[in-house]
Specification:
coiled coil
Length: 199
């Protein structure tokens, strides 16, 4: 009778552990849902940012076109001026070329900055997605092991071999509890990284 009570207590412990793992799995699902929402918001922000950059690039392109048109005009005018006027126009032309070169540099710099930011955002989102996926896989594996341990305990109980069952159950319990304790320890050590927070 005492052995039956002990076995039942172990089964109850495993069931409680399974319930806790399921609760953990549900929390991870909620984290995944929030991650999807964050990704959607970031996509919207990126779209707005790209529209802003496109508008800025168009403005730079218009500026370049105006500078080039003005330069062509000066080139045509210098053909009909005196030597003094010609020298003056040449200086103005040189200045316009310098302005054009600077405008092109600014345009290229904006493009490089845009690519750098997009790459950083993509790497950050990919890292978070990979971390959540690994946690989900770990919890699923723990649940499967716990279910197998429960089935083994029930079978060995019918075979009237409580010692063997006790060793198997405790092994499954320690494994599952150890994994869960590691998760809790990590969450406490890294409160800003253990869970995804909705912003």
């Amino acid at each position: 009778m005492e052995e039956i009570k002990q076995s039942q207590a172990k089964v109850d412990c495993i069931e409680n552990e399974i319930e806790e793992m399921r609760r953990r799995r549900d929390e991870i699902k909620e984290d995944l849902k929030r991650l999807d929402e964050i990704g959607q918001r970031r996509d919207l922000e990126d779209k707005k940012w790209r529209e802003k950059m496109d508008k800025k690039n168009k403005k730079l392109a218009n500026t370049l076109e105006k500078i080039r048109a003005k330069r062509r005009k000066y080139q045509e005018e210098t053909e009909y001026k005196s030597v003094k006027e010609l020298e003056k126009k040449r200086k103005e032309l040189k200045q316009l070329k310098r302005l054009e070169k600077n405008a092109i540099k600014r345009e290229k710099l904006e493009q490089r900055q845009r690519k750098k930011i997009e790459k950083h955002k993509l790497e950050k989102l990919s890292a978070k997605s990979l971390k959540v996926s690994e946690e989900t896989a770990g919890v699923a594996e723990c649940i499967n092991q716990a279910m197998e341990t429960t089935n083994t305990t029930a079978k060995e109980k019918n075979d009237e071999t409580p010692k063997t069952a006790q060793g198997t159950v405790c092994g499954g319990k320690q494994t599952g509890c150890r994994i869960y304790e590691q998760d809790n320890a990590r969450d406490q050590a890294e409160p800003g990284k253990g869970r995804l927070h909705h912003k």
